[in-house]
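TA notes, week 10

Several of you asked for a full example with nothing omitted. So below is the full record: structure tokens for the whole chain, then the designed sequence directly under it. When grading your own attempts, check the secondary structure regions first.
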């Protein structure tokens, strides 16, 4: 009969925003007509944080699977993942936090000559040939900027290595103290022995 199209109350749909109808309001209706709702998918912001610092932000469509940015870096810590699982459906703005494991101790102990034997987690014996009068013992840092102190001959050094000189058949001990980010530390002992 040519009556003007009038819209009903706007519908709702989870995860979407109503964007109107596909037939203009006021259109003359002269036959059975189907009018379809139009929808815009909602977009949500995911903020990736490390402590109070923002690592990255990403925008996801409603229901999209959560994907991670590149792993962040934190001095003195090993990245241990995020606190929301990858693939989780994003249905709202959200914050995802980095998890960290504190690095403790040294990466390794090395030397310029001789045979290094590991007695326990933090105790070593380094035996050098009688033809060698000295050896450099090195505490390899577990992370860049790690604080390491060296103790030898009653003195303390701020380096992570020490050159030890010995007479034939003599032995001396070097200690390294490796600090973690929170100030705690582990002490490593290396007994250096020169063969007779």
């Amino acid at each position: 009969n040519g009556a003007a199209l009038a819209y009903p109350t706007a519908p709702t749909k989870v995860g979407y925003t109503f964007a109107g109808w596909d037939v203009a309001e006021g259109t003359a209706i002269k036959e059975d007509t189907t009018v379809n709702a139009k929808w815009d998918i909602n977009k949500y912001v995911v903020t990736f944080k490390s402590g109070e610092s923002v690592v990255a932000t990403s925008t996801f469509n409603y229901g999209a699977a959560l994907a991670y940015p590149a792993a962040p870096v934190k001095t003195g810590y090993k990245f241990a993942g995020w606190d929301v699982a990858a693939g989780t459906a994003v249905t709202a703005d959200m914050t995802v936090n980095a998890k960290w494991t504190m690095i403790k101790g040294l990466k390794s102990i090395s030397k310029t000559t001789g045979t290094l034997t590991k007695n326990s987690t933090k105790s070593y014996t380094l035996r050098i040939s009688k033809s060698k009068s000295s050896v450099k013992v090195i505490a390899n840092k577990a992370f860049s900027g790690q604080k390491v102190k060296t103790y030898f001959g009653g003195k303390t050094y701020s380096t992570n290595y020490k050159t030890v000189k010995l007479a034939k058949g003599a032995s001396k001990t070097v200690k390294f103290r490796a600090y973690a980010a929170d100030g705690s530390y582990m002490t490593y002992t290396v007994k250096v022995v020169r063969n007779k």
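DSSP finds no helices and 17 strands in the chain. Use that as a sanity check on your answer.
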